[in-house]
Amino acid sequence: MNKSKSRKVGKLNKKDRISRMPDSVLCHILSFLPTEAAVRTSILSSRWKFVWTSLPNLMFNDKLCYRRSGTSENDKLTRFENFVDRMLLSNSVSINKFSLHCRKLRYLSRLKFWVALAIMRNVREIEVNLRVGDPFEEGYEPVELPDCIYNSETLEILKLESDFVFKSPSSGICFPRVKKFHVEIHKPNMPDFSICPVLEDLSIVAYLLDIHWDADISISSQTLKRLNLIIEGPMFAATGHQATIEAPKLESLHVKDDTLVSYLVYELHSLCDACIDIYYTCVRNDPDRADRALQLLKKLTNLKSLYLSHGIICALGKAYRHLYDAHQYSLPTFSNLSFLEVRIREYGWWILPIIFNCSPNLESFVLIMDVNDPERYEEAGWIEPQFVPYCLQFNVKKIEILYGDDDPLEPVKYVGKSSNELCKELLMFPRGSKTCEVEFRGK
């Protein structure tokens, strides 16, 4: 064989290496593509003609249909729905993941049919992102799930990003194998998490947009380890809503609350990590609502790691000034806390030493100075502490200060030294600790 022929054969072999791989490998490769794109590979050659029929991940997104021009919206919807039907009915191979991102469906019953088919094919993960309109408009119809999903023995991950109607099975057990659950709540209809026997990771987005919604958010689970709770609503609306959390095995808690509801928290014996991001503005004189932030914090005393947003710092400051005169104020002691991160704006600097005093075993501290108007710091009430908190003298090993432009240096005088361009100025300040190392970084 001459050299030119051997080169051609070599090139052909190189081009055909992927096609020679086993179907399982090819399906794994195609599983990273949107399903419609994976199906298009059937035109590559006879080898690829039926590979797509064994895809373990079926991921549908109707935006691919809307990219095409020349047809009506109804025709595009029909084509998309027929494509999903064909893919789910094409074979009986087990499905690892069924994902649907859809702007609109002509009939919501179609979704129930698709989910039921995925359940029949032993699906492990279901993700549905569906726009169903405004929940407060006349004629609005929430989405129902097929009954079979509540008893699936293979479903482990469930993500529902729409307004769904939830039922409690007569068996008394719901989602028997689901460990990770993401759900949106638009109206007072939420699952009973206490009957989900293996639930470990829960994410809830609750939209408190209706002032007439008088239902509370209730989270009770004996198995839950991680909770991400996001509450959205009018920032300045008076709310009587309440969130109840009872989870003895909970290890991580993330709360982002735009409305600052009341919190009832029980049995968080295992909680180690918490991120509390609450919206509260000092423009409003609302000490009762500010006290809600304090009451929540009092239930989190076993933490090892804590993040506090500028909103909760502001709320704690308001609660302190309101209750201190009445001799009722006391910040909880965080005996196990070793890491603290605080984001702060113009208001609330003076409460930092109080938090330090309540964290005797703190080892690492991150201060994020999120400043809008540096001239308001004096108004915000930075008060030089009379003595250096115990943790800063003996335990803190690292302090990191992240700042924007025009940030003041007063709040960092007594905590240590800097290694950036402000090092010389900082080293001129009297220091409360000579051993802790501070990293001071600017933009």
Q: Can you walk me through this structure?
A:
It is a single chain. The protein is an alpha/beta fold. It has a domain at 273-443. 24% of the residues lie in helices and 22% in strands. The protein is built from 12 helices and 19 strands. The protein has helices at 3-15, 23-30, 35-40, 63-66, 73-89, 109-120, 287-297, 310-324, 352-357, 377-380, 390-394, 423-427; strands at 57-61, 97-102, 125-130, 143-144, 157-161, 164-165, 180-185, 201-207, 217-220, 226-232, 242-246, 252-257, 262-266, 273-278, 305-308, 339-344, 364-369, 398-403, 437-441. The strands form 3 sheets. Strands 1-2-3-5-7-8-10-12-14-15-16-17-18-19 form a 14-stranded parallel beta sheet. A 3-stranded parallel beta sheet has the order 9-11-13. The radius of gyration is 28 Å and the shape is elongated. The model is unreliable at 8-12 and 414-419 (pLDDT under 50).
Q: Which word captures the global form?
A: elongated
Number of helices: 12
Which stretches are poorly predicted, pLDDT < 50 over at least 5 residues?
8-12, 414-419
How large is the share of residues in beta strands?
Answer: 15-25%
Q: Mean of the pLDDT scores?
A: 77
Distance between the termini: 66 Å
Computed structural class? alpha/beta
What is the share of helical residues?
10-25%
The counted number of beta strands is 19
Q: Which sheet architecture does the biggest sheet show?
A: 14 strands, parallel
Radius of gyration: 28 Å
Biggest sheet: strand arrangement: 1-2-3-5-7-8-10-12-14-15-16-17-18-19
